[in-house]
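Consortium newsletter contribution from the modelling node. Members have asked for a concrete example of what our holo predictions look like. Here is one, prepared for the (~{Z})-2-methylbut-2-enedioic acid complex that several groups have been discussing at recent meetings.
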Amino acid sequence: YRKTNVFRDSFLQNKAKFQLEPVVNSSVIMSITTETKAYGFHAGKGIRMTIREEIEQLKKEKNAVILAHYYVRPEVQALADYIGDSYYLSDMATKVDASVIVLCGVRFMGESAKILNPGKKVLLPDLHADCPMAHMAAIEKIEEVRKEYPDVAVVCYVNSTAELKSHSDVCVTSSNAVKIVKELPNHDIFFIPEKHIILNDGFCHVHAAIRPEAAKAAKEARPQAKLLVHPECRSEVVALADYVGSTAGIIKYAEASKNTEFLVATELGVFAELKKRCPDKK
Ligand code: CIZ
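And here is the predicted structure:
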């Protein structure tokens, strides 16, 4: 609740100046894949250094911190000061002692960091990094539902634009959605925009592409493995899972489990942290 009010108030107050800025063009970020071979010229001073060295140097000069979501490419995660899910990153953004936050993730994550830190500069490395699901709800529809169900609580999944959040009553993540919805006093809930989590038309194209047949086949091929599923997956895939949870939840589960083999149904980027935390598991 508190966080949502911060969202709404800050968004409305700062709407005019609310803007995210690109830090470098995406081709520079892409070239980090070849970081040991790639050289840039630092700040036009003609000093030859690797992209990693250049980024480290810029971080010091600008008093910047790099926050990366589990979803981003492993080589970007490798450069980050903090890696986590969107809630963790928004929370860290309020705690770090830096004047510039470079948020390696999609747009709504940069928006959240900015809203919670109006005094800090938030840079998004690639402004094209956006999640289509963040736009899959309409303000007119929210207003219609509010008129039809005066008691309704509009519950907004964190993976939404700041504008949609400002029209909602509460903002939740995939880790706390069920808990928060259960605690709401309202009888009617309108959940936006994710249809697999509760009831609207939005969906994540990455998770929706994971077919139940594929999950079943993988389970049959590896009966000893536990199937860990993100809640944005189709309900038929969720029904096959041994564990359902957010990226942070999946990583925690795999780390704590006595099992040594897992089938993981979510974005590829999560494997970087899984490999780090569970080096002996498959
Ligand atoms: O909360 C997040 O970061 C999202 C959108 C998904 C997840 O499971 O981390």
